[in-house]
Amino acid sequence: MTTHTAPRKTSPRRHTTQAPLIVRFVKSPKFARFLFPWAVLVFWLIGNKLIQDSWDFDSSVLATPREVWDFMWAEITNDTVAPDNVYRTFGISLRRLGVGFAIAMFLGTLIGLGMGLSKAINAFFHDWVMALLAMPALAWALFLSLIFGFDNRGPTIAVILAGIPFVIVNIREGVRSTPRELFDMSGAFNVPRAKTVRHVLLPSLFPFMFAAARYAFSIGWKGLVIAELFGGQDGAGWTMKFWYDAHRLHGVIGYSMFFVILALFIENVVLEPISRRVFKWRPALTGPDVVEEEFQHELDVASGAGTL
Amino acid sequence: MADIEIKNLHKEFGVGDDKVVALEDVNLQLGGHVFVSIVGPSGCGKSTLLNILSGIETPTSGVVNITQSGHEAAPGYVFQAARLLPWRTVMDNLLFVQKDKSDETRARCQHYLEMVQLGDKGSKFPGELSGGMQQRVGIARAFSIEPDVLFMDEPFSHLDAITARSLRTELHAMWADTKKTIIFVTHDVGEAVELSDRILVFAKGGRLEDDINIDLPFPRDPSDEKVAIAKASVLRKFEELDLVVS
Amino acid sequence: MGVSATIEVETSTPQRTTSEERAIRARRKDFAVRWIWRLLGYVVVLGLWEWASGTVLEENLLPGPSRVFETTFDLIDQGSIVESFRATLTRIGIAITISFFLGAILGILTQNAWLRGFFKDAITIGLTAPGLIWVLITAIVFGNRWYGPLIAIVLTTFALVSVNVAEGIGSLPKDTLDMARAFGVSLFNRNRHIVIPHLAPFLFTGLRFCFSIGWKVTVLTEIFSSSSGIGFEMRIAQTLFRQDELITWILLFFLFALFLEKVVLQFFENRFFRWRKDIATA
């Protein structure tokens, strides 16, 4: 019997197959992500320079990253030129959003339940819900601004109009998706009706209500800002218009960043963990699986992008 | 246990060209501490019969009489898919079908969970359990209300052979311990022969074709010669009746 | 004694014809119910709207359907409709093409893990930031120049396109491709029969999204920074406090866009993607 033994060499360090730590780090996607904002900064500065050099531009219009940063810092430390500071403006907006959101959820759930339970009601509202889904918030904003002028009500109604169709569609889907087999099981064991409603119907509707709430929030937010822009006298949207009218780009960019940061924060830090905790019995669920095709299109657009 | 009497039971669905006769003029009597299997190809009405007996569906015509000797009116039911409430824990699932939530009831539920070897899984969610475990919870649930009659609709058909085998043994032990009437639907002739005292053979179109008694002692080992012979003879009967079975 | 339960149903099996008739009648009734209620919906909504205009709110604040109808003809007479539609649609067309192109490239690039990390936040922001932000920024920087609006539209839509393209590429059926390679199928044919049919629906969906969002942003950006198009007309109407024209413009375009989305694109979708069950429409 022959045995083969490979000759043992002590391998000097430069023959190791793994690259040094620093190279591996640079090659990692995490580093790439970290690199990106710096690339943006560079791009921004270069862009500014190019625009300045091109003769037909008024260079005072541009904003440098420094200016934006200074602006945002000033806002945070409550040193603002605008009538209200950033905390008050967003506070006002969020309050409007809250009221509109609550009303949209309430009315939307009623109509959604109706549409899910009754073919007649479904036929009645169907085309209108579809139209509402596709209507841009812009239309509501302009329309309401001429009616309500600078009132508080305009933006709040815009939130309701923008969000309600999404609530309706999700709740309707929830009713349609009630798990038949579980109701049958409940009946087979003679479980009393109240118990069935509490333990089978309501929990099965809950994920859909949550999905509805997420859409209502996300769409409502965007509708609100546009409505405030065209027809308000305070709030985040109006303040953005303030800076726009003042032709201060750093103000516009700064406020936009506040807006995006807040939206991302609420989405990822607040809503997502709640969603995961509540649905720990079914971690993959974030919303209805099958929705009518034409509604699904609008839902996808809304969840994937900033609709107007 | 219960006594079940079925007279001229007839069930059909749909009208005109779409009409389907699920059960055709079924006459049956069964009861006592028996394990009865209902065997037949798909479309022979086995599940429909079970649904009618348990009250989920109503017959088109005919009489069904169920006399129970105990106090529990509701039957126990085990489904093909476990049908557990995914948003409740295992123990809550058992409690869901009980009449109350007293300590006594809880203890009883725990007892049946232990019977299916899931005593320590009470606080888990169904999503965290395997298919076999979920089915065991379903069995525990059905037994835990201590019904007189237990209906089981192909409970092991979705499981792998090994799990099914061990569950069959467990089920049999539980039945032997308690005095229940079990009505067990399956398409697997071998399974029926291993578990039952009596096999009712249904053909496509809902006709009761044959009523076979299996007189072998329990427990039955599948590798036992006598069991194998019984299986073979039942299968031959199927061939005679020109039925297609797995 | 124990509990006893009897289920007893002694009915004679119904006559064949009457139960058949019953089924047919039930189906007809269902059909009628649906259409009557649908019609009722239109009657009630349009009726309420017409009534509200003039009673709940004055007519110049809330023009009713009849007023919108009249205004439409006024606008047609003025000749501004065709021009404005043409301007806006051209803008949308160009912007969508660019956005689609860039989005597709981005979708391809993100197949690489490093680049995916690099662009991750860009895409997140692209998806979250409302178009309004880009509109305002480009309006200040580029003023009335023709490329301002285009940039705003592209920025709003590129992310969704890239996500769809990435999804399409990421889900390419490796097994099928391996099988084809094993059978010696040429690269050209592999692309033709496997890659492209697989990608097509994703590209199409991306296009639909692009258009859906695109037309809305276009109108918005025209309000701020252009001198032609629907948005521009709407801004004029707003400053002149002509609510009826404002509503008419937006409704006209909205209906037109809806028509394009539901009817035209849907038609193409059905024709080309009949084989895909999940894009199946009733």
Can I get a quick summary?
The complex is a heterotrimer of chains A (308), B (246) and C (282). Chain B has 246 residues and is an alpha/beta fold.
| Class based on secondary structure composition and strand pairing of chain A | mainly alpha
Rg of chain B over CA atoms, rounded to whole Å, is: 18 Å
Calculate the terminal CA-CA distance of chain B, rounded to whole Å: 31 Å
The CATH first-level class of the domain at 1-75 and 149-157 and 183-246 in chain B comes to: Alpha Beta
Oligomerization category of the chains in this entry: heterotrimer
In the predicted model, the low-confidence regions of chain A spanning at least 5 consecutive residues are: 283-289
Fraction in beta strands of chain B: 25-35%
Distance between the termini of chain A: 79 Å
Averaging pLDDT over every residue of chain B, what do you get?
A: 85
| Cα radius of gyration of chain A in angstroms | 27 Å
Topology order of chain A in helix (H) and strand (E) letters = HHHHHHHHHHHH
Q: Largest sheet of chain A, described in full?
A: none
By DSSP, the count of extended strands of chain A is 0
Give the spatial strand order of the biggest sheet of chain B.
5-6-7-3-8-9
CATH architecture of the largest domain in chain A: Orthogonal Bundle
How much of the sequence of chain A is in beta strands?
under 5%
Helical run tally of chain B: 7
CATH architecture of the domain at 1-75 and 149-157 and 183-246 in chain B: 3-Layer(aba) Sandwich
In CATH's first tier, which class of the largest domain in chain A applies? Mainly Alpha
Low-confidence stretches of chain B: none
Order of helices and strands of chain B: EEEHEEHHHEHEHEEH
